[in-house]
Design brief:
The complex is a heterodimer of chains A (108) and B (115).
Chain A lengths: L2 E3 L3 E5 L4 E8 L6 E6 L6 E6 L3 E5 L2 E6 L4 E6 L8 E9 L2 E4 L3 E6 L1
Parallel strand pairs in A: 2-11
Antiparallel strand pairs in A: 1-3, 3-8, 4-5, 4-9, 6-7, 7-8, 9-10, 9-11
Chain B lengths: L4 E3 L2 E4 L5 E6 L6 E7 L5 E8 L2 E5 L6 E5 L5 E5 L8 E8 L10 E2 L3 E5 L1
Parallel strand pairs in B: 2-11
Antiparallel strand pairs in B: 1-3, 3-8, 4-5, 4-9, 5-6, 7-8, 9-10, 9-11
Classes of the chains: A mainly beta (108), B mainly beta (115).
Chain lengths: 108, 115
């Protein structure tokens, strides 16, 4: 089967750096993605890692280690607007399977 | 505006009823995916269409069905509704048959409340 695990909640202060981890088990793997979802809103695509290593997009970076079945999302210079849920997702065939989500709370 | 349009935004209906949710994908996208998100739950994959053909099914109940029309819009039909069907239903689209570097673009969702 396919499953992903993430911490349910993470709390950090404004300006800090936070890392959200994701481990996965899958019979087939093509890539790991990250999505952000504010309360009541639509998920928005943040990043996609097909290969091992770090992908950087502004304040957000995403890392993948296929040998460890592990990835993380790194958020730097946290802002209040970063308070949201973050989902990792991996390709399974022709669709994404999403993790349970990590709720990030950014405190002033 | 993501370019993916879902209607209606909110729907309140009684148990046992049938509803239809509609999705228009972003211009140029051929794939449409439907996901269900219950309160405090993750995104559960329901079904995927590509250029009018069903490509994959997830944990979609037999009471639910979907189709993608020649103009590429899609409809998700939910029948014999139960209280547990209350959820946010998201449609997402992508240009390719399988999502890759560009991921999905999600619509704003339809919030279904069954009373």
């Amino acid at each position: 089967g396919q499953s992903l695990e993430q911490p349910s909640e993470v709390t950090a202060v404004e300006g800090a750096i936070v890392q959200i981890n994701c481990t996965y088990q899958t019979s087939g793997f093509y890539g790991l993605s990250w999505y952000q979802q504010h309360d009541g809103g639509a998920p928005t695509f943040l990043s996609y890692n097909a290969l091992d290593g770090l992908e950087e997009t502004g304040r957000f970076s995403s890392f993948l280690s296929r040998s460890d079945s592990y990835g993380y999302l790194l958020l730097q210079e946290l802002q209040m607007k970063d308070s949201a849920s973050y989902f990792c997702a991996h390709n399974y065939g022709q669709n994404f399977v999403f993790g349970p989500g990590t709720r990030l709370s950014v405190l002033p | 505006d993501s370019g993916v349009t879902q209607t209606p935004k909110h729907l309140i209906t009684a148990t046992g009823q049938r509803v239809t949710l509609r999705c228009s994908p972003r211009s140029g996208d051929l794939s449409v995916y439907w996901y269900q998100q219950s309160l405090d739950q993750g995104l559960q994959f329901l079904i995927h269409y590509y250029n009018g053909e069903e490509r994959a099914k997830g944990n979609i109940l037999e009471r639910f069905s979907a189709q993608q029309f020649p103009d590429l819009h899609s409809e998700l039909n939910l029948s014999s509704l139960e209280l547990g069907d209350s959820a946010l239903y998201f449609c997402a689209s992508s240009v390719d048959e399988a999502p890759t570097f560009y991921g999905y673009t999600f619509g704003s969702g339809t919030r279904l409340t069954v009373v």
